[in-house]
């Protein structure tokens, strides 16, 4: 939930920047870029992790739970940015 709140705060900051610049196309570009980078970053980091060093299945399960939690947090951070980008893009058409 904390990730969603942080994502919402940064999405509002993106809207504020677009409003102050009086250029709403900035909103979908910046928000979309942040959302895509957040998801891609976690996907790349998740793909690089090597669980072969773990010896027990409980350690592997714990690591998998931690990975899923981090990926869920990245998605929760990205959701407000995707929403802002989509709304801004639809309003600009």
Structure in words:
It is a single chain. The chain is mainly α and 93 residues long. It has one domain (2-47, 55-92). The chain is 86% helix and 0% strand. The chain has helices spanning 2-21, 25-48, 57-92. Helix 1 runs antiparallel to helix 2 (25-48) and helix 1 (2-21) runs parallel beside helix 3 (57-92). The longest helix has 36 residues, at 57-92. The mean pLDDT is 88.
Entry keywords:
93 residues, mainly alpha, 3 helices, 0% strand, elongated
Average the pLDDT over all residues and give the rounded result.
88
- Domain tally: 1
Question: Spans with pLDDT under 50 lasting ≥5 residues?
Answer: none
Quote the beta fraction: under 5%
Radius of gyration: 17 Å
Distance between the termini: 32 Å
Structural class: mainly alpha
Largest sheet: none
Please tell me what the overall shape is.
elongated
Number of strands: 0
Count the helices. How many? 3
Helix content: over 70%
Helix-strand pattern: HHH
Fold topology:
Elements: H1 2-21, H2 25-48, H3 57-92
Helix pairs in contact: 1-2, 1-3, 2-3
Quickly describe the structure.
The protein is built from 3 helices and no strands. It has helices at 2-21, 25-48, 57-92.
């Amino acid at each position: 939930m904390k990730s969603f709140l942080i994502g919402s705060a940064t999405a509002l900051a993106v809207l504020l920047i677009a409003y102050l610049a009086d250029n709403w196309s900035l909103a979908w570009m910046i928000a979309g870029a942040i959302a895509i980078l957040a998801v891609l970053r976690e996907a790349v980091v998740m793909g690089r992790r090597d669980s072969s060093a773990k010896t027990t299945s409980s350690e592997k399960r714990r690591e998998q739970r931690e990975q899923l939690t981090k990926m869920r947090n990245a998605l929760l951070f990205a959701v407000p940015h995707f929403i802002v980008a989509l709304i801004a893009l639809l309003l600009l058409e």
